[in-house]
Structure formats: C-alpha cells, structure tokens
Design a protein that fits this description.
The protein has 10 helices and 9 strands. The protein is of the alpha+beta class. Keywords: Heme biosynthesis, Oxidoreductase, Porphyrin biosynthesis.
Length: 304
C-alpha cells in the first residue's frame, strides 16, 4: 500500500507541475501579445523526458523558456557523492522558467519548482523565484518581494525571511561581490521533518509558488513595457546579462545537476540570454542610473 501511495504522489506532483507549465505558457503569450511558445517533446536516455517550450522574438519576450521534466533512472556517482547517498534509483520532476525580455526596463525572471526522490526517507521539494532587473526600480522590488512574502505566509510565517536569506546567499556572484539581482526566495530539501508540514502541504506550497509567477511577472511587464529607452540602456542590459551568464555557468546547481545527469543540453542552457556583452572594466558614473542599480545589488536589503 505504501508503495502504491508513493507512486500516486509522484504522479500527482508531475501532473500538477504540467498544469503549472500550461497556465504560465498561456498567460505569457497573452502578456506578450505577439510571441508563441514552440514545444519540443523529448525523452531522456535512461528514463523519462519532458516538454521544452521556448518563445523567441516576441513583442517583449526576446527569449523565454518554460520547461517541464519528469525523469528517472540511475543516479551518477558524482551526484551520489554530492547527496551523500548509496542508492541510485532516482525520480525528479519540475518546472523551470527563465525569461529574457528585449526591453531593458523589464526585468529578467527565473523560477524553478521541483521534487526529487530516491526512496521514502530521501526525498524533498526545492525551488524559488528570483528577479534580475537590468535597472532596479525600488517600487517594483518592493511589489515583487511583498507578493512572495504573501505566498509564503499562507503556509508558515518563517518561510519568507528564511528563504529570502537563502536567495541572497545563493544568487551571489562571489567573483564580482554582487548579487545576481534583487533576489527573491530560494529553498531546498523541504520535507515534513524540517517544515512541520505534511508532504501534501509542501506540494501545495510548491504549487502556490508556481501560481504566483504569472500575475507577478505580467504586472512587472505592464508597468515597464511602454517606457522609452535609449541605446545606453540597451548597452547596460547586455552588460547585466553577462553577469547572469557568469552565475549560471559557474555557480548554478541546476545547471550542474543537469549536466552531471546527462540531461538535455538545449533545455539546461535555455537559461542563457540570446546576447550578452563583456565590456572591459565597465565602471558606471557616480550618481547615474547604472551606478544606483549597482548599489542595490547587495545581500540583506529588506524590501518589505
């Protein structure tokens, strides 16, 4: 009976994540007004597969990916060592999103919700949402964090402060001494033992985070899409995108896990922008919009 329940739970998680992918794709197409997602179904050597959905050259979304996967099979030795486990039959499912807008005053956004399982004892939920504005607008930052806090508070009062701190620490580009953006929430290895919630409640929390994405991002698009911008704004956007690339290739654990588990390379690297620039020793002028943004790319800012 327990095995049957575990299988049903896995299937429920994957099914609800698929629904999240569908809802977000529909909503982003409406918000963009022009772009459409192209879907590619794929299978993983070793077990499972997924649905990669990419939008390119939309009215606002220059490149966006909303990916679902549910994979299973044998865990590679390197990952077993990292997780400190001896078993190797794993199951993992999740939705992963990265949106790169063409408009420099509309922010980059990333979301990931996921479930991983080795056995009854070794399983957990992880995920989060974070925002990477090319230019930090404080009202937008407060709105974004306020909405994430609301989503967390529905489940536990200590979730938002804890997960916000995790995001600050995780999305930190050590070699630049700056955060990737204004953070958000990031959590990993959530289970009943460390949350006081049931597995079903943790799944509901994960879905709630997934459902927070669309209304928050469409609001941020609408607030900024009609603002005028200059060539200087575009140059700064490409410069900020380069930091995004550096973080994803050097530090991002999802990228590393995907590469180490023989994941689908196009899906793993869909998070990279279509274009980024690495200017040499770029130093914004003191008092400029670019300079002000850099002052706000720090850990520990209380946005709510």
């Amino acid at each position: 009976m327990e095995i049957e329940k575990a299988i049903m739970f896995k299937e429920e998680v994957a099914e609800r994540y698929k629904q999240i992918q569908d809802e977000i794709c529909r909503g982003l197409e409406i918000a963009d007004g022009k772009g459409k997602f192209e879907e590619e179904l794929w299978e993983r050597n070793g077990g499972g597969g997924g649905r990669t959905r990419i939008m390119q050259n939309g009215a606002i979304i220059e490149k966006g990916g909303v990916n679902f996967s549910a994979v299973h099979g044998k865990l590679p030795e390197a990952v077993k060592k990292a997780f400190n486990v001896t078993e190797d039959d794993f199951f993992a499912t999740g939705v992963s999103i990265v949106i790169h807008p063409n408009h420099p005053l509309v922010p980059i956004i990333h979301m990931n919700i996921r479930y991983f399982e080795l056995n009854e004892e070794t399983r957990w939920f992880g995920g989060g949402i974070d925002l990477t504005p090319h230019y930090v607008f404080e009202n937008d930052a407060r709105f974004f964090h306020h909405k994430l806090k609301q989503a967390c508070d529905e489940f536990k009062a200590d979730f938002y402060p804890k997960f916000k701190t995790h995001a600050d620490d995780y999305f930190f580009i050590k070699h630049r001494e700056e955060t990737r953006g204004i953070g958000g929430i990031f959590y990993d290895r959530l289970k009943p033992q460390n949350t006081g919630l049931s597995w079903q409640e943790i799944l509901d929390f994960s879905i709630n985070i997934g459902e927070t994405f669309l209304p928050v991002y469409t609001e941020l698009i609408d607030r900024n899409r009609d603002k005028e911008f200059t060539e200087k704004h575009k140059e700064w956007q490409y410069q900020r995108r380069s930091r995004y690339v550096e973080f994803n290739l050097v530090y991002d654990s999802g990228t590393k896990f995907g590469l180490e588990t023989n994941g689908r390379i196009e899906s793993i690297l869909m998070s990279l922008p279509p274009q980024a620039n690495w200017g040499y020793n770029v130093q914004p002028k003191e008092g400029s919009e670019e300079y002000k943004t850099l002052q706000l790319l720090k850990k520990g800012i209380n946005w709510v």
